[in-house]
Amino acid sequence: xxxxxxxxxxxxxxxxxxxxxxxxxxxxxxxxxxxxxxxxxxxxxxxxxxxxxxxxxxxxxxxxxxxxxxxxxxxxxxxxxxxxxxxxxxxxxxxxxxxxxxxxxxxxxxxxxx
Length: 114
Description:
Elements: E1 2-6, H1 10-22, E2 26-30, H2 33-42, E3 47-50, H3 61-69, E4 74-78, H4 83-92, E5 94-97, H5 102-113
Parallel strand pairs: 1-2, 1-3, 3-4, 4-5
Helix pairs in contact: 3-4
């Protein structure tokens, strides 16, 4: 499965990318909205895993809508508890909170996407 992984935290991005690659997923990791859009323009993906809130108050909601319009499933992996953002995100894709059990949940959802 080819996955676009958008996460601004380098440690989280590297850790999840390493884990997903160890499960034989082809992962393209990016840090910013601009990088994500460039990757979308140049390739095709089976799934997008997005951090809901990026640096400087940016959210990935607009990007998620663009991705969903291409019929690519969206999975948000987030630490936010901002209700309005979570409500909007849940209209677009599945939301998984970072924390205990989130890695297992992410892998479980990826298994169901195959």
